[in-house]
Amino acid sequence: MTRPEAAALPGASDTPPDRLAQRASRLLSQLATRSDRLVNEGLAEVDARKWHYAVLASLADQGPASQAALSGRTGIYRSDMVGVLKELAARRLVDRSPDPADQRRNLVTLSSEGRRRLRRLDRILDEVHDELLAPLDPAERDQLVGLLTRLLQPRHPEAPPSP
């Protein structure tokens, strides 16, 4: 049996806060779900996917890389990276050529068409983020990004004191 108060809107003055509404993990999960939906829908309108954007942005920001390095940079599994690169190469968004330092592997570079495509995807994601973060002013958006970045940093336990 649910209490009538539990159905009240968050912030109602005479009801205690809902436990779920107080859990950062729950709120972050809901926001991530909404963000994923908006991003996927926005990119789908131009026949793109999140992984396409991740690879193109990585190449633009950090330069050419092997398939394994791109996997590490983007968090895309190596087995999935094969398909992503195949799609991007078929669209002439990336170029693959033998790595001069190791002929056994390919070096992936961003093509000029890939740079144009990345600019288009950036504009789409800017619009998506404007919609997602509409309730926040620019300073709050910057603060949110800063806080999320801190939360995603790996935690390193303090080194034991020296003897």
TrEMBL record:
Residues 21-153 form the HTH marR-type domain. Pfam families: MarR_2. InterPro entries: HTH_MarR-typ (IPR000835), MarR/SlyA-like (IPR039422), WH-like_DNA-bd_sf (IPR036388), WH_DNA-bd_sf (IPR036390). Residues 1-20 are annotated as: Disordered. Signal peptide: none annotated. PANTHER family: TRANSCRIPTIONAL REGULATOR, TRANSCRIPTIONAL REGULATOR, MARR FAMILY. This is MarR family transcriptional regulator. It comes from Streptomyces hydrogenans.
